Amino acid sequence: MGSILLSLPQAYKNGIPVNYIDALFTSVSAICVTGLSTLSMDVFSRTGLIFILILIEAGGLGILTYISFLMTVSSKKISVVNGNLIKDFYIDDIDFNPKSILKKIVLFTLFIQVIGSILLIPGLYKAGDQHFIFNSIFLSISAFCNAGFSPSPDSLSGFSGNWYVLSIVMGLIILGGIGFVVFTNIAQKIRFARKGQIFYLSLHVKIVLISTVVLIVSGFVFTFISFYKTSLWELPLSKRILTALFESVTLRTAGFETIPQTSFTSSASLFHLVLMFIGGSPGSIAGGVKTTTAFITLLYLLDGNEQRTTVSFANRRIPSNIINKSITIVSRSVLILLISAISLSYVENHLISNGTISLIDIIYESVSALATVGLSRGLTPQLSTLGKLIIIITMYIGRTGIYAMSIKSGFTGSDNEDLIYPEESLLVG
What we know:
Layout: H1 2-5, H2 20-31, H3 46-61, H4 63-75, H5 80-86, H6 98-126, H7 132-144, H8 163-178, H9 180-194, H10 203-226, H11 237-250, H12 266-278, H13 291-303, E1 311-313, E2 316-318, H14 320-347, H15 349-353, H16 359-370, H17 385-405
Antiparallel strand pairs: 1-2
Helix pairs in contact: 2-3, 2-17, 3-7, 4-6, 6-7, 6-8, 7-8, 8-11, 9-10, 10-11, 10-12, 12-16, 13-14, 14-16, 14-17, 16-17
């Protein structure tokens, strides 16, 4: 539907539709809240931008939320299966009511986006934006949904030194990527505290908050240090701090850009790949393998062993099934990433051969697509038709497949748990 809408003449300023593959690419990127685009945003008319905005909002709230919400309105009840799917937005020790969850998700999303739009209006107006009202709405929705689309062809480069606008955008990105369950748990703690009662934050919330702070701070420090001995070090100190901080936040699946990604050193870009791969937190709009997944996997790699299938953190034991799920998601994501990068490097080998792009540009593109980040080192507009299809598939898997990867597959044998095969040893390591 999105690609059809973006194939209409009304979607473009010159009234001439683009190739269908580009309309499809933009549609998938918007609904997967990625932000990669083979087209410059200045080719779209106001109607085209509205089409993109609708797709971003649909992808941000999530197909599952929409379908479940419609089921709730129509039948006044939700099946056990769909109820369990919706419960993935929440965790066991938080009150669970599917209808209440869906209502809170929708209302919370709209509330934050409205507040973000109102706060952005004076900033865009002062910056001389002629369409400051529409663009503030567009940026607020895109930032909260971690989509990375901007109505301006240079993303947010025009605000590279604007603390007010970029601070609001960073706030929206973090709120959209931290997860609804975190806000619910914190609200419960505040409510209990007012009554003089004790209410402890869940382990999930603690890990999310710790991971988010560590990733933002480490990303800022590493990026800021990488400016040394580059042209970026010549920027004023205030702008250097803002640029490094914004880069650390936007890498967490948002995809906005204040300076070209090619401005960073190779070491910084490699570290940025890690931040993009991890992404946001579970139950949020952000992509990536998620903060808790990476945290648990790292915790097990450092503290786990074959004799002990569980690990503990903050005086709590993490179940073995959660550890297995985390390792499964990370390992399968790495496998998909390798397939995407190798396929893309084969298809776009002519660009590598003539020195137009490098291998790190290929890897950067694949990670950005899989983690639905939307940042690129300039490769996206140069992609061939087959290259665009590879990125389209990677974006789609990144948006819909991360959860699917955690579901037990039948690749390893029968799903019948009563059937136990003979055990046989083999050498590993």
